[in-house]
Amino acid sequence: MSNAIDVAGLRKSYGKVTALDGLDLGVATGEVHGFLGPNGAGKTTTIRILLGLLRADGGTARLLGGDPWNDATTLHRRLAYVPGDVNLWPNFTGGEVIDLLGRLRGGLDEKRRAGLLERFELNPTIKARAYSKGNRQKVALIAALASDVELLMLDEPTAGLDPLMESVFRSCVEEERKSGRTVLLSSHILSEVEALCDRVTIIRSGRTVESGSLADLRHLTRTSISAELSAPPVGLDQLPGIHDLDIEGLRITCEIDTDQLDGLLRRLTDVGVRSLTSQPPTLEELFLRHYSGDDTGGAYRDQAAPDHAANPSGARA
Amino acid sequence: MTTPTLTKPSGHHSPQTHGRTSTLTGTRALAKLAARRDRIMLVAWIYVLTALVAGTAYSFKKLFPTPAGRAEFALSAGHNPALLSLYGPLYGNSIGSLTAWRYGGFAALGAGIMSIFIVIRHTRADEETGRLELVGSTVVGRNAALTAALLIAFGANVGLAVLITAGLTLLGLPAAGTISLALAIAGSGLVFTAVAAVCAQVAATARAARGLALAVIGVTYLLRAIGDSSGPHGPRSLSWLSPIGWAELIRSFGAIRWWVLALPLVVAAIVAAAAALLAVRRDYDAGMLPQRPGRPAARASLRSPFALAWRLQMGSLIAWVIGALIWGVIVGSAAKGIGGLLGSSQIRHIIVQLGGKSALTNAYLAAIMGFNGLIAAGFAVSAVLRLRSEETSGHADPVLATTASRVRWGLSHLVIALVGTTLILVLAGLAAGLGFALRSGGTREIGPLIVAGLGQLPAALVMGGIAAAFFGLFPEVSVGVAWSALGLAVLILFLGASLKLSHWFLDISPFQHLPKLPGGMVTAAPLIWLSVIALVLGVAGLIGLRRRDIA
């Protein structure tokens, strides 16, 4: 059993609206997996199918070696879930909710509970109606993190947290990883995903568009290059994978597909390089490329190009 | 600009109106939105209340075609403390007088409850869910939401008055009496509109605000029940403290006291002004009652779906039980006086119309037990539908993501509904027995009344079962269908016999199949059948819940 989550060709529609259109997702045991996608891409629907709250229309989904729909109750003993929109019973205190959810999951670690309350600076005696969004989020997080489970399913868990609490959250997830737990982290905070995740899956309109380690995905993107050369360059526009080439005398700026970087550098050093600035691709660019534009793969490229052209100066600065 | 601005600002583009805002800005837009959201509920409320009043007038017309018959009936009914405490004083013996007596107070109560639901829904409930925060961030004045809610409730009460007037006029009742009755009912609605507005400021949750307002309405009904039934040396003036009492004290169709109409108007205006004052003084989403810190950890017992369901429903069950106890004592103590009416032949008709059959006291008590059945069914439906509100509010998600299975989660609330419904019926029966004992000194009715109360259980459970089945199988419509089904059962019980509806139609209501207890013959078959139907409906609901998507 190598994968904690195995989803293939998952389909789900609500009436005429298609939420999932053949989604694939594989989360290996023990990894922290980033689950990215624009609003309405189907992240929450996927997680709710994995929780057995929704029944898939088609495709397969395996969770911890079991069937998320039929084995829901037994599987839930081994996982904890933090919803994206935490709604608590208004007249329960935070402490009561933490205990209740923990016990319903099969017990929680009192020591960890106390430690987490302290780290997240949450007052457990306040009624849920008086909590801010961030504090409600903390209640759900503490309830999940204090449970002794194999898998954490976190649906945008830091959406309401302040930067200080976000860093507490990061160190908590870091500890989870070290203790061998699997984490599925749906998120919009790219720095968080970059800092925490071993691998990411990017989905769009209910379909998986990219999946792999961050390093893998970086190869799929372009690096911004700006250089000052000793002599005018020749034939650069013939290079494979080059985009937005701009030559002004001895200065050049361009975008290069990261896996073609080698060829460009060779050509430049042949001419002679006086200065060189290279900007590695950020996850943000990866994101923008996959999020904007139409459904077809070719369109991403065309759509992404103007974005890159818009701020080459940023790369030079 | 010093130009006198006596001319009206001309249209939207007038520079005079541009940028001018007050605490009421946006009221019209909010009121429109509220009216749209409420269009079905408002029509249903107004229709049911009008139907009760007009249907009663119609049935009195059929029951007592001659003035002599009415006079005989009025003589006995108008002096009977039992009926006085239930319905209020009787002024005159015309069809109109009898109608105002029989349903004037109830309609005033109904208008009050309708107004409370409307106002809380558009103030505290919207605030609690955060909808109002979104709206409030736009160009909307601080008092706009409250004012919009008051306007909608005001409109509903005006609409109710117009329809009642139209209905009774069509039946040929005199104009002055008709209008005074309609306005008195709407007046009670306005008072409770304002009361609800205050409650919405004081309590921090919609549930608590509604409970508080309903408690106020219960107390006012109690005040007039005591005042109306007490003798010349008793605390008769208590009725004057009750807005529901005012609806009777105006003496519609008798020697009308028009000035009494000023009471609800003045009180409603003062109370509404108080609500507006409170509204600007408090913080958004905060109440007036202090928030105390709660327990840092859950009780050891809070560890199962059932414990959670119990914790969620306990408060409302206690409120229902208290209400049932008070109601039981009032109607039970009134039962003793029924015997004094034995001389009248017509009173039999009115009791028969309520659904009773044999000896008069028993017939009266059996009719009361019919009410109890509906009250308990009300709890059953609301307890089952708690599942739906848990689901739509997102509270169910984290629970169902634990080892709590759907069936266990659903069953927990169904068990609460079952136990609570049983408890309400037993205690209401016990309270009626004790009330009867208080007046008569005999405890002989306690046992039979508890049994009679329990006799209503299968039918009440069928209503809860309908809610459960629809929750599991057709969750989107479950709330509307379940409450409509109960509303239909109420209409059939109150008006079915007098409107001479066909048997086929009356038999839709499970309550029509119950033995008339106490005093009636008990046949096991309908009780068993109804229990089986309730069980099947409940199981169907759970199966549906297990197979469907969670919203």
The total count of strands of chain A amounts to 13
Q: How would you describe the shape of chain B?
A: globular
Low-confidence runs of at least 5 consecutive residues of chain A: 294-317
State the end-to-end CA separation of chain A: 49 Å
Portion in helices of chain B: over 70%
Which helices and strands occur, and which strands form pairs?
The complex is a heterodimer of chains A (317) and B (551).
Chain A: E1 3-14, E2 17-28, E3 32-36, H1 43-50, E4 58-63, H2 72-76, E5 79-82, H3 94-104, H4 110-119, H5 133-145, E6 151-155, H6 163-178, E7 182-186, H7 190-196, E8 199-204, E9 207-213, H8 214-219, E10 222-229, E11 242-248, E12 251-257, H9 261-271, E13 273-279, H10 283-291, H11 297-310, H12 312-316
Parallel strand pairs in A: 3-7, 3-8, 5-6, 6-7
Antiparallel strand pairs in A: 1-2, 1-4, 8-9, 10-12, 10-13, 11-12
Helix pairs in contact in A: 3-5, 10-11
Chain B: H1 27-63, H2 67-77, H3 81-87, H4 95-122, H5 124-129, H6 131-136, H7 144-170, H8 175-202, H9 206-229, H10 243-249, H11 262-281, H12 305-338, H13 346-354, H14 360-392, H15 396-400, H16 406-440, H17 446-455, H18 457-473, H19 475-495, H20 503-506, H21 524-547
Helix pairs in contact in B: 1-4, 1-7, 1-19, 3-9, 3-12, 4-7, 4-8, 4-9, 4-10, 7-8, 8-9, 8-10, 8-11, 12-14, 12-16, 13-14, 14-16, 14-18, 14-19, 16-17, 16-18, 16-21, 18-19, 18-21
